[in-house]
Specification:
It is built from 14 helices and 27 strands. It has 532 residues and is of the alpha/beta class. It has 3 domains: 53 residues, no CATH class; 211 residues, FAD/NAD(P)-binding domain; 153 residues, 3-Layer(bba) Sandwich (FAD/NAD(P)-binding domain), CATH 3.50.50.100.
């Protein structure tokens, strides 16, 4: 039987028709009247769902504003989760259908955690709509976003743009309208134009990167263990170079040290003499966001663990070793002259560059939306551009996260109904680090502000205030460092705080269960070393 919205009602009335055939017509009508406005337990799921949607729509007195969110990272995901679905229609556009808990990404790259334990599917947010697509352009005057559907292989990594803006389109292109727009597209790894970095270096920004790194590390050990591999080749294969002395580079080196000395040393004991982990950084010291005492503690601990830290070293080129068929790389470093350093893998973690969408909209000439009635008698400025941050080239926002305009006639001009947060934006009032902590706090602030604005009698939102909860970094061997305005910790106590903090900050109950489960499995059984 085919059910329409009222199909079950008709079917139910037919079942009771014989019982009331000899009774009054009034009784029959009362029965049908009772059934129609009440979903019945024997309704088919589809019919019941249609009934609920129809009645829910009828109860809606006012159309919800459509809020479109660009990006599923820390800012975009947290904002979409906190925004009230009863007040707004939530549309999320991202080339990735999941959120990644990036602070634990280094752990997945060596098998301490499995990938799914730090992922959360976007569709579980119960959005009104989700589009797995790239945002290519925005027409602010018409409130339209041009998006391109993701094709297979396009969204494997957040490291570098998978498709440059000038290349031909691969997927279907459509326009998505919005009432309010939140730009939180994040950023990509900065290569500084150094030769070979984009082609041959490995990055650590997404699960696709972590998977590639894990496979390459294990592959280096297998190739080094091959009987015909020479000692010179083993030294190159088992030299793991990390470029960048920030938290990401430091934590990856620490996790790699744990993998090698806790697990691989038992399986490849004869290869331990060839192991070399080196961190290269252009700065005078690593971990510049920590005070000197904690940074020195980290360097001393690395030295005891056999991890080399090379500060004030300038990488000039990465190229494949043409004389070696094992896939090793050659690094040209300014301080070493013409001598090149061999490595099995180069993990790159130095700085950020803006998303292609941000670069595109920054060039747009926009009709000045503020040249309106209040400017009568004043000279109109015609077109304006979005205000660009000098250092990061990101989107400048005011204290309420509204996108600022570069309007000489109005120092507080903003783009109506457009907000930006996360790594792609910069507050005009203060400089904040490009961290998950900042992005998530901005997301919660903006969601609460919009929820309040949708209510009756809402006033002007209070400015965003960042609450620094501290900075942490894992150093290996169950040791870490932590720094906040209140205190400083190092060693095992900081490691316990590091794990507890990241566990409590996990996005869902599912993640909060999976993460400690895999920590326990790794502690008891060791890390997985199978390649597949």
């Amino acid at each position: 039987m085919t059910y329409s919205s009222y199909g079950p009602v008709i079917a139910a009335s037919q079942q009771y028709e014989l019982k009331f055939a000899n009774g009054s017509v009034t009784a029959y009508i009362n029965l049908v009247t009772f059934i129609i406005p009440h979903p019945h337990p024997f309704y088919p799921p589809r019919a019941k769902q249609e009934w609920e949607q129809t009645n829910s729509h009828n109860r809606t007195e006012q159309k919800r504003e459509r809020v479109v969110v660009l990006g599923s990272g820390w800012a975009g995901y947290a904002f979409a989760r906190e925004l009230d679905p009863k007040k707004y229609e939530r549309i999320l556009i991202s080339p990735r259908s999941y959120f990644v808990f990036t602070p634990l990404l280094a752990s997945t790259s060596v098998g301490t955690l499995e990938f799914r334990s730090i992922l959360e599917p976007v569709r579980r947010l119960g959005l009104d709509s989700f589009h797995e697509a790239w945002a290519d352009d925005i027409d602010f005057s018409k409130k339209l976003i041009r998006i391109e559907k993701v094709t297979s292989g396009d969204a494997t990594s957040r490291t570098l743009p998978a498709r440059e803006p000038h290349l031909p389109k691969k997927g279907e292109v459509i326009d998505v309208p919005y009432d309010k727009l939140v730009i939180s597209v994040g950023a990509y790894s900065q290569t500084f134009g150094i030769e070979g970095v984009k082609e041959y270096a490995s990055f650590l920004r997404d699960v696709g990167d972590a998977r590639s790194i894990r496979l390459r590390v294990l592959q280096c050990f297998e190739k080094a263990d091959w009987p015909t591999t020479t000692d010179e080749q083993r030294k190159k294969l088992l030299h793991f170079a990390v470029v960048g002395g920030g938290p990401t580079g430091i934590e990856f080196a620490a996790e790699l040290h744990d993998l090698i000395h806790d697990d691989l040393s038992k399986l490849y004991p004869h290869l331990m003499e060839y192991i070399d982990i080196t961190i290269y950084d252009i700065a005078p010291k690593v971990l510049p966001m920590f005070d000197q005492q904690l940074a020195s503690y980290a360097e001393d601990l690395f030295r005891r663990q056999g991890i080399k830290v090379k500060t004030e070293h300038h990488l000039q080129r990465i190229r494949p070793d043409e004389d070696d068929a094992l896939g090793t790389l050659k690094l040209k470093i300014k301080e070493y002259g013409d001598d090149e350093v061999g490595a099995g893998i180069v993990v790159w973690s130095t700085g950020l560059m803006q998303n292609p969408l941000v670069q595109t909209i920054m060039k747009k000439e926009l009709r000045n939306p503020n040249a309106a009635a209040e400017r009568k008698g004043k000279e109109e400025t015609g077109t304006v551009k979005i205000l660009k941050a000098e250092k990061s080239a990101g989107i400048v926002t005011d204290s309420c996260l509204r996108v600022r305009l570069d309007d000489p006639a109005d120092a507080k001009a903003v783009l109506p109904d457009v907000y930006s947060m996360g790594d792609c934006s910069v507050l005009e009032t203060e400089t904040l680090p490009a961290t998950a902590q900042v992005a998530s706090q901005q997301a919660v602030y903006l969601a609460k502000a919009l929820n309040k604005a949708a209510g009756a009698g809402a006033g002007q939102s209070k400015p965003f205030k960042f609450r620094n909860l501290g900075t942490m970094a894992y150093l290996g061997s169950w040791k870490a460092i932590h720094q906040s305005s209140a205190d400083e910790l190092k060693g095992r106590a900081a490691w316990i705080l590091w794990r507890c903090a990241y566990l409590t900050k996990s996005m869902s109950i599912r993640n909060k269960i999976l993460v400690p489960v895999y920590w326990f499995i790794t502690w008891v059984f060791g890390r997985g070393i199978s390649r597949f």
